[in-house]
Amino acid sequence: MNMFSFCSSFLRRVLLALLVAGVVLPGAGCDNTTSPTPVTSPVTETWAGSFQPNGAASRSFIAAQAGEVRLQLLSTTPVNITFGLGFGTADADGRNCTITDSVLTASSADAPQIVKAVTAGTYCARVHDPGNLVVTNGSFVVSIVRP
To answer: How would you class 90 by CB atoms within 10 Å of its CB: exposed for 0-12, middle for 13-18, buried for 19 or more?
Structure first.
């Protein structure tokens, strides 16, 4: 075997090894499969808002799966005032809120005032003044727990 043939053979092996490494190694250790992201349930969000006397405010939200929605009026201003708290369905775009359940309630840190079994879909919460605000605007904080 002469030196030229040895070098040529050696270079071919090196080039072949580099070619294999360039094709195989970039994919090694990489998982290119996509797994669906699991829905973490329940989701808790806090909604704060305000309205004028005899006014209302609503917010739409999505239940990603079947489960329970829990609405809790956490605080109000003025304090210890009774507001209306409602739950209902919303259009797919979230604009129209049709109330299906409502209660008149003061704020409570102890337990939700509305608990409702739902399927996946678009829903809404509504807080309103049933006539207790006379001069000042009302404000509130609501906890929404949804699947």
So the answer is: buried
